[in-house]
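Quarterly update, task 2.4: magnesium ion-bound model.
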Amino acid sequence: MINLNNVNLQYENTATLALENVNLKIQPKEFVVILGASGCGKTSLLNLIAGFLFTDNGDITINDHQVKGPGLDRGVVFQKNALMPWLNVEENIGFGLKLRGVSKEERTKEITKVLEWVDLTEFRNNYVYELSGGMQQRVGIARALVANPEILLMDEPLGALDAITRQDIQKVVLSLWQKTQKTILMITHSIEEALFMANKLIIMTPRPGKIHKTYDVDFSKQYLEGVDAGEIKRSQKFVNLKNEILEIIEATS
Amino acid sequence: MSYARNYQVFPKLSSKKIVILSVVSLALFILTWLILSELKIVPKIILPSPIIVLNKFIGVIKSGYADKSLYEHLGISLFRVFASLFIAIIFAIPLGIFVAVNDYVRGILDPFIEFYRPLPPLAYLPLIIIWFGIGEMSKIILITLAIFAPIFLNTRAGVLSIPQERIRAALCLGASKWQLITSVIFPSSLYHIFTGIRIGIGFGWTTLVAAEMVAANSGLGHMVLTASEFLVTEVVLIGIFIIGIIAILTDLFMRYLTKKFIHWHR
Ligand SMILES: Nc1ncnc2c1ncn2[C@@H]1O[C@H](COP(=O)(O)OP(=O)(O)O)[C@@H](O)[C@H]1O
Ligand SMILES: [Mg+2]
């Protein structure tokens, strides 16, 4: 369980708090999506949980242990630039396993498994630069999952992709969530993406960065139960919520 | 049907036409040289004709110049540069990495490196001669120092340009500090390192020739200087030609290596 208790964060030489009094509990197997305009502190929040960033004001624990730095219990997927361009797909995915001394045989087994999950089996020998943006992100996701972390942290993982690819990968991520039962924390600034993927949706507002409102939503559950994605996104409930959230974001930014 | 063409403000040619133009330009240059010298418009001491130079070249290849065969001059020059390059690489790459990742190392080394970096090598050659004499040692030290700076600076720049996400990703995957250096930072910086080595070879070659003119009794620089003292302009030209060709060949070789080993760049 991830627990943030009264977290405040101030960057040097800035006037406003990047995060003000953030309280957040994330239960195992939840899919939490943080949504908010640019500059409202989403990345800062994720970086605190990932262990890339520290604050003395407030408490951040994972399973009751203070976060002291990055760890294998948390896999991170970045928006871009995080793959090793000198390695092929298979070597990228196995990068962490190799560093930790996992045998070649074991590595190949694990890599083969996650390659199937993200549907990249036939590209295992390609270099990263030979892949499309969407495929590269799938490699990043596979690399994070192969270490079998408890938590998956994703900072705008689909932010650099075109709309069509984006929808495909949203579905890939949802089915991986179902298959692996990971706790997922994802950042986005697309309202539609947030609504479609989350089971808990957190709206943040800027200056100072704050949690404004939290929604429990079940569109991803509907999708995983077999309802058509387009149908879900056109449903009255989805459209109404989308407009409601848009109003909040416009009113506060 | 003709191919699509871009709107252009400045003249553009196909690469084939550029090569043709270069060949023609070179041919005209040699022709002008031939006319100027054969018709005695310019005296032989200033500009010997290409035919004389070519004959002399064959002569030098056969019987050497300034008490040594051409191969000895060439060999010792190449040895000086590549031995120095080897030493410079061994020191510059690790130091460049450590200065980039560790602010203690940076703080300690910065004043020395910042001072020595823009200093022309020939400015401290006299000091090196006082300390180490005029033997091989002082030439190797001088050239090593000349080569060190670009490799060191490029390595440091390479490390500093690594995207933060890549480092963080490796940390999340369990990389130790040392693994981070060997498995992420070093390979990420390879393109910059190779660029540094290319520039370094150029610097080394320049410094070598200068050093051989100041203090040496062998090497291509020494051969050129001796020839100029006796006004044997043919040999001066031959020396310059060889020095230039070697510089071009090593640069092409480095570019080939860069393309082959850093295939992911761009
Ligand atoms: N390293 C930093 N130094 C100073 N200010 C920063 C730094 N990183 C982020 N900020 C500021 O903190 C606020 C929140 O940033 P961030 O967490 O990146 O927001 P988001 O991811 O929602 O766009 C912004 O106002 C940003 O300018
Ligand atoms: Mg951000």
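Highlight for this quarter: The mean pLDDT of chain A is 94.
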